[in-house]
Amino acid sequence: MRISKKLAPYIFISPFFILFFIFGAFPILYSFFLSFQIWDGIGPQEFVGIENYIFVLTDPWFWQSIWNSIVIFVLTTIPQHVIALFLAFVLNSKMVKFKDLFRSSYFLPYITSAVAVAMIFSMLYGEHFGILNTILKHLDNLPLIGTLFDFININPPIRWLGEEAWIKPSIALMVTWQFTGWNMIIYYAGLQNIPENLYEAAEVDGANMKQVFFKITLPMLRPVIFFGVTLSIIGNLQLFQQPYILTGGTGGVGRAGLTTALYLYRTGFNWNMFGVGSAMAYILCLFIIALSLINRKIFQER
Amino acid sequence: MSRENNKQNNLPDYKKLKKITNKTILYLILIAGVVITFFPFYYMMVLATRCRSEIFCYPPPLWFGNSAIINLNILLDKLPFFKNILNSIIVSTLATLLVLFFCSLGGYGFAKYSFKNKEKLFFLMLASMMIPPLLSIIPWFIMMRVFGWINSFKPLIIPGAANAFGIFLMRQFMEKIPNEIIDAARIDGAGEFEIYYKIAVPLSKPGLATLSILTFLSSWNNFMGPLLILQDKTMYTIPVALSKLNGNFETPWGATMMGTALGVLPIVIVFIMASKRFISGLTRGATKG
Question: What are the angstrom distances between the C-alpha of B84 and each of B3, B88, B237, B246, B254?
């Protein structure tokens, strides 16, 4: 069978559009429809207007889940991007050798399944027998660090996953460990696009590393940072696997680890409230868009 | 040039010392990063070889024990774990093969043809990448139930077979194929599909390699879809199997770490072998265009 040159491109790109309309666009529209219904997935559907939206927006658990998601997002995104920028800059400069080795090593956590990582970290986070608390206890016994720990009110053993105040930092720490390498690669790719002669000019002018970083690298990377932070917003506001595993699927003590994605999952699939779940999905989507717009605003100004 | 060298050699001692110190500090930071990166993997393997009483004692073990076989037996008692690994291999391989075919085909369509509404369709495709998957998860699950695809691998393979990211990536690589080769083949009487698989595909092998690793990884690590769809122990993929071990006081931690290690290590080994190529393919695909 021969296909004409005119028809060929449409045939070649059609699989995407067919699959997208069936498995992408249709569920989104159906989700919108469901968000105005009460439905347990089996019985009859009942139209309730915007009741589901009102229910979600007046639900304290929902607002707590949004707060949790945003706190985790802030706690992990800032260290992730700062460390990633530093690593990408150092590994792109002429200062060190074995660059490929370092780059591959830092990238390794990213390719590991988040479930596996969370399983490992729930061991590291053990209260009495976990390795992290063991290390902290040893550090606490050292004279200077011990005083510092007292000062910032850290008293090992820390109940990483057993205490409300620590659940979010624990999740954030793990996410940082897993995704810093990914951001490093984004920044590394961005650094490849900065013209070499800018650096050469700076070298001729006798600029030091600090000046090069703040006067050339950082301004030139701004679009890349914007891109990276946008990905972090989209990813972190949909954080599911990590809190699901670390809190045993419940959200943890006082629901301190209940992210919106996890709450949405529980609403839809544990409690079979498909209508409320769909409304929640739409509201979450609005939050993601709002945060992305704020992010864009921040990067446009300055 | 020679003056430059002279300048380097005549650096005052304190400056030289400062430079060496800076370099040492830099290396120490980088090495500390490597240790932090690798330690959880190492610790996973240590615990996989330790029995319950050794894991729950103070101070915790830092070196390998000899309970690996016991842990493996506990794991196999709880789950058909080798079947779970096989499931992961089947799902990831099939998903990767389909993605390679449909995304290179779509990428070729967008890279080497001009047609009506091309820009609009391309933009629509890119825009579809911005949609949060959570938005459609509930209706998606209902659809799978209507299709009778619950407890089957189909939902994990078919919906993503021609995905926007893969097509975008392949377009990046295929745009570099010279038009002259394609035109010459056409003059020689080759059909459009023939040109695609005899010329475009062989010429974009680096792109296909990058895409296959990325697809295999995301399929291997996929969690929410399989968690919703796969209901029988014998159908679980590795992440779902692992998650079912978790979450109660009876969790057999040594066995769980053994399972985690078995699920993680194949990927880590493949990555270590292919990492240099993979990362360069990733950065190239991300920057060009």
Answer: 66, 6, 5, 16, 18
